[in-house]
Amino acid sequence: MKDSYDVVIVGGAVIGSAVAYYLTANTDFTGSVLVVEKDPSYVKASTSLSSSSIRTQFSNPINVRISQYGSEVIRNFARMMEVDGDRPDLHFHSGGYLFLANTPDQVQTLRENHEVQKACGADVVLWNRDELADAFPHLRVDDIELASYGRSGEGWFNNTGMMYGFKAKARAQGAEFVTDEVTAIGRDGNRVTSVTLKSGQIVTAGTLVNASGPRAALTARMAGLDIPVEPRKRTLFVFDCADTPEGSAQVNDGRLPLMIDPSGVFCRPEGKFFLSGCPPIEDPAVDWDDFEPRYDEFEEVIWPTLAERSQQFEAIKVVNQWAGHYAFNTLDHNMVVGRHPEVKNFIFANGFSGHGLQQGPATGRGVSELITYGQYRELDLSEVGFERIVENRPFLEKAVI
């Protein structure tokens, strides 16, 4: 490892590895790249512990387009990330998302979101109660007023497969990955100059990228900066179903979607099982090392809701559970990507609030463009830049799960 790099990336999970990949894939970028990751096993990374899904059903055009690009990358991932004949398969399941609405406000939101999605070319349809019942006969829909279903470009995939694919290709293209931890960041006026590693080495940095997930605020503070990102716990449950409804759908070859109940409880197929979760009743910031599942959420919230929604979800049994962290942006629950307005060689790629995996490809490409060209080229991410944090100006996104 050298003592100086053009770009130092703090965090090597899906965001950091995507930035490294896009930089080293760009022939206009001729610099050196170092990725610092303290735990290359990634066992507690938000990437590894996520529900591994992607959707285009957002309310803001930029978020729709970010996911449309992510879906394109997933389709072409094996070809893009091929290294020495190894073509990583993300095993994409195009199950789609199904949003259910049973209040006037929810119905209005789905209709408004649908107009945005259609304008962006997303393959999403709205269904009335009868159309929903015909498509998914296992559901009880008497209370449902409207449903929104993604027919293509949405589903779930191998989360660590994406991360390791980006990492392996980035390394093959010349990026260096080191197992270490950034403990200090040097500044000279309005420029970051270096990082100090736990091993004791000081590395000069031309540009620093903060890709440290739920620890984003800790990294920013080392440079004397602030970002409103904190770890929020989310528990996922895998359950077995005595009488599975998978295969009963009258669309998409019988495959069930990722269903979001009006209550916020969601579930989707996971092999022969189902994966489920819910918004926590209380959602405080947690310690960065607190990964204890909230076991009571299944019995108290998830199971009663699913049992009411489908007779076939009455007899279910938890077979696994785990907790992961959202890198939660407390201002507006949306990604923060871009340069600090004063310390311009400090770039944020943070605050994805549960959407980092699906937004990783667009983020990696966008950050690489900022570094290489000084501006965005393919997709303008200025709307989600750091300036809105300084101005306390939330970026509105109504379709946050």
Automatic annotation (TrEMBL):
Residues 6-370 form the FAD dependent oxidoreductase domain. One of its GO terms (molecular function) is oxidoreductase activity. The keyword GTP-binding does not apply. InterPro entries: FAD-dep_OxRdtase, FAD/NAD-bd_sf. The keyword Oxidoreductase applies. Keywords: Membrane, Oxidoreductase, Transmembrane, Transmembrane helix. GO terms for biological process: mitochondrial respiratory chain complex I assembly. One of its GO terms (cellular component) is cytoplasm. The chain crosses the membrane at residues 7-24. This is FAD dependent oxidoreductase. It comes from Pelagibacterium halotolerans (strain DSM 22347 / JCM 15775 / CGMCC 1.7692 / B2).
